[in-house]
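Usage example:
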Amino acid sequence: VNRLFTNGALPLLLAILLASGCARLGAVADTGAPTAPPTSSPDPCGAIGSVQAQVTLPEGMDFWDVFPNAGLAPELEGVSGIELIIYAGEVELTNVSGIPGVPRDTIVDNAVCVIMPEGDANLYYDVPREGLTIPGLSTPLP
Amino acid sequence: MAIWSQHREGPTVRKILAFTLALVVAVTTSLMSHQPTLATHTDKCEALTQVGFASHGRASSQGTRIDGIRAEFETLSIELCTGPTNAARNSYMWVAIEGACGNSGNCIMQLGMGRAEPQQAMGWWWAWGRSPKAPGCEGYLNKSPGVQRISDWDGRQVRYEINKGAASGTAFFYFRIDGNLKKALSASGICWANTWADWFGEAMNRGSAIGGWGAGHVANHLDAVANRYRFANDATWYGPGWTAGALCRIENPKPPYHCKQKASDSLEYWTNHP
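Running the assembly step on the lines above writes:
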């Protein structure tokens, strides 16, 4: 260890690790700017991809304030306190089950992970993004 | 005493003894902490993208909706393949209610046991999904049947049940394990027609097991017993009435997965890795 310190290898390694950790900590923006690089491990929805925004909404019905053109999702109605992870681009889903023998959608686009009040995570995809409005941003995103 | 007296022989001997003692303690602790298991073999993972191999038995609603399914799964730990790989390797046993879904596999409600990353310990799991391609689901959001962990498996043979009911005038699908309510899903989110009852084993990697291990390894099959399902507006639980000796339906490459009818209301599942 002493030798590593004296030739500078260990401090360099520590600096790299520290910088890497700081970069990861700052990667997920609360306000929605597309800043995050792809994650390397699945999130609560089992998704691996780039996060565009991560927001908390007081009511499930507020989902349609963010995605005004989204379809029906009765399971979001009447619940309080949901968290949205909005992805930028395609995401890979690592935990998809489904009907045996039918191809599964494991690479999806326009995806949103909704973490429900009791902790379960619902992954929606092909969610229309027209009019997407993320709380905290002054203008709608394209 | 003789062992400890040798400590005086020098620091090297003392270090060897300490290391040996630590190793023994570590191995013993590791062995004692294992969950109940009869399967003893794991194979190397294949570097595949997630596929979803399955073997299963299915019952059709014969034109009526299926509102309930249940089964008991034998106490048998499901084993995952060993790395290194970036591919998924989860494996489960499920009871499921399914429906026509317009070439999508999303239209399903499922409850079961299995092993999955990142926790890897045996657990209870559930999932449900929906597709706007399914008849009756036009205008709904597409929801992936992503598997969610409920809690740790308790190592007992218990009943897994999905059953439709109501509370305060609202219809729900209730997910129960051993009679205990684990999840309640508003029936209004299930727009697809619940047409099939399905009892299936599933692996996300061909190196992982569905059920126990067969030829060449510990011959132990995972049994799904007391398989029952229920029609809408009919409180009776029916058995699937499988024919003696009939093979299960097996999706994707048949080897190494196998299943077989064991009785008119039970199936057994195993994996024949070389």
